[in-house]
Amino acid sequence: MADVEELLAQLIRIPSINPRGRAEPAETPLAEYVADWARGHGMAADLHEVVDGRCNVVVTLPGDSAETILLETHLDTVETEGMTVAPFAPTVADGRLHGRGACDAKGPLAVFLTAMADLARRGPRPHTVVLAGVVDEEHVYRGVLHLRDQGVTRNGPVVGAVVGEPTSLRMVTAHKGCMRCRITARGPGGHSSEPWGRVNPIATLAQVVDHLTGEYAPALEALARPLVGPPSLAVTMIEGGTGPNVLPESATITVDRRTVAGEDPHAVWSELRHDLLTRWPEHLEVAEPHIVDHALETDPGDPFVRAVGDVLREAGHDPEPKGVGHGTDASKIAWDGVPCVVFGPGAIAQAHTPAEFVPLAELHAARGVLDALLRRRIHTGAPA
Ligand SMILES: [Zn+2]
């Protein structure tokens, strides 16, 4: 197998399942392997503990300029239950490499590392290149947040970042954020044979759901953005009641509100809370959001974005910026003013699936894109 295939196979052999809050150093063996591999190819590499012995890895390759291109991707994968291919024994069939993480996101990691190794071997290196492999993207993003705390997303300065995720080789410059919270209705409870005059929390929530889906959500259409469309709201969970003949004392729904650029998820929550508590001033509680994430919207005219587009066009790929619905680490890196694009081989539809794979042709094509991008002088857009 060619070097990028061989490295990807090796990365898949090292399990790095996100422990979702359990205290396990899940990604650290992979971080150590990446650091050793990078050092063996003439680069500097360090591990940084984020939480519970779980380590980010940062690989640095100095260039002619301190201006830095940041390559960021995540080390963790989702679970392997129900997989129909061997999760950690990569196999190749029909031009596809199968295994957990093949596209999400060890494919991009193998592309970044082998492109940097090639750059270390033979240049030219107009920019410093920093690769960050981070933990916990599949849970609560602690890896990328730690990276920001360390200043890795600012130092250089960073002229642009490529965030490695499966995008079928498209340049993704926009995605939605989210705000998820629970809404609880309360009542006095009692015997269900005598419901008269008692507030039933389930009936209250029925009205709330009606309002959210019939009035609140349609009004979001007006906030549509070009690449990702309008924000949305869906009621995703409902629970309540203790027995078939008991009036419940409480019932709870969970709402998943997807945000677009320009919306602050915390402000979205307070406005939603204000709206609901104005309509149902008694018996309703709107809990603090348990998950918030910002949207991404990178300026398509930024020199880094234009450079990525030029490289894609020259290689015969679609250079148009694209928007997607799911979140990535990019929106956190973009807080520091870094122009971010999300890019990688394989399709998001393949991520988290029982037979996850990456097409080998896309793996090599992504490597070609990185080879060209890392050799390009970003401020002029001309090849170095
Ligand atoms: Zn991913």
TrEMBL record:
CDD domains: M20_ArgE (cd03894). Residues 173-279 form the Peptidase M20 dimerisation domain. InterPro entries: Bact_exopeptidase_dim_dom, Peptidase_M20, Peptidase_M20_dimer, Peptidase_M20A. It holds the Pfam family M20_dimer. Keywords: Hydrolase, Metal-binding. GO terms for molecular function: hydrolase activity; metal ion binding. SUPFAM superfamilies: Bacterial exopeptidase dimerisation domain, Zn-dependent exopeptidases. This is Acetylornithine deacetylase. It comes from Pseudonocardia kunmingensis.
